Amino acid sequence: MPTSGGNPYHDRNGRFATGSSAATVAAQPGTGARPTPPTTPPVFTSADGGTTIHVREGAEPTHEVWKNGELIDSGRATRAWRTERAALIAKHGGEPPPAAATPARAPAGVPGRVEGQREELHRLLHEESVFADPTGDTAAQHAHAGRMAQTWADYGDEYGADVFSGELNRARRAAGSRERAKAVKPTVRQELELTNLIAENKLAENPALNRDKLYAQTRADVSKVSAQGLGKHNALLASERARWYQREQEQYGNDIERTTQYHAFDDGGNP
Fold first, then answer.
1. Helix (H, G, I), strand (E, B), or coil: what is residue 97?
2. Which of 46, 45, 78, 47 is nearest to 63 (CA)?
3. What pLDDT digit, counting tens, does each position of 104-140 carry?
4. CA nearest to 33, candidates 63, 3, 68, 74
5. Which of 3, 60, 94, 104 is close enough to 19 for a disulfide, judged by CB 3.0 to 4.6 Å?
6. Could you give phi then psi for residue 259, rounded to 5 degrees?
7. pTM above 0.70, yes or no
8. Cβ contact 63:57 at 8 Å
9. DSSP secondary structure string, 18-63?
10. 198: closest CA among 173, 175, 225?
């Protein structure tokens, strides 16, 4: 097939040929340049060094078999490239690479190499859970963190300690971020404002609630949230304000004569 302008890597229509197509076009008589192996290192070399297998990259990656400087075989590299490569190696007199062995799992009850760090990961994962949901069930959060830490420890024993170490390092970085977030705490007035707002929203939904018990429980929950820093406090405050504003809109609609603005410590007496 003649090429455009004598370029061995273009067909007669001037299109660029990649992968094995480039080598095929270049190998045709009368086209000028001879094919050359890819510049990438070979993925296989025979015992005598005369036969090599390369992967030519491009739009369609291709396995190419070269022997003493001549292209003798090629094949497209698909998702099953391991099987295809092994078949080419076996076809041209080589020993196919052995299949990767699955690491043996540690016997049940035998501490793995990461056992000493499992408790640290358990603690960090529990702190993450509490930070995400300060008012959640602490016992359930602690149990869940323990199960997650044990799962990562099992992964470390089965697939290598670096798998466990990666999760532990991530948890350590997250702990540093949490400490910086918790460094700034809301004021007492801000905590009381949030407490009153939450209590007001709950009483609006269920007026039969006991006010004293509701306020005490709400004050305890707000203290837990505030312990996680001003950011968590403000996020909950914004959520409760949105609930309050939505209720006001449902009750009064778009009455322009009424200003729907929440007043901290408002007992409902404002017009």
1. coil
2. 78
3. 454 444 444 455 688 889 999 999 998 888 888 889 9
4. 3
5. 60
6. -90, 115
7. no
8. no
9. -THHHHHHHHSTTSSSPP---SSPPSEE-TTS-EEEEEE-SSS-EE
10. 225
